[in-house]
Fold:
Amino acid sequence: MLIGHYEHSLDNKGRLTLPSEYAEELTAGVVLTRGMEACMYLFPRAEFERVGVRLREESLTDSRARKLRQWLFPQAHALEPDRQRRVLIPQWLRDHANITDKVLIAGMDNYVELWQPDAWRERDRTLAAELEDQDFFASLHI
Structure:
């Protein structure tokens, strides 16, 4: 399970060291792609493949599924973490998330979101305000 949040710095080559707590789930390879809300998604390779399988089950005439494919797959980049758990983040993905040096790494259970730290803090404040409505998540039936 990929949980918790961490703040790491990119090195001078644009590499990010992944948290040691995530090592077991990410050593088989990862896929980086652009995320929603100005962040990046980092998937364990097997999880990204499951997303692909699920989207292939949808009809090509389903515009929502087609748009999600168009959003995720053309920008995706498969990577193998090195022995120090580092991955090179392509510049176009750093630009998408406005990341220059610091990265907020947020575990989302089956994937990770990579944020510019100030953007993450703003997103967290927005979520906190939305959660004042106790019924906000009621429709999820969790």
About this structure: The chain has one domain: 5-116. The mean pLDDT is 94.
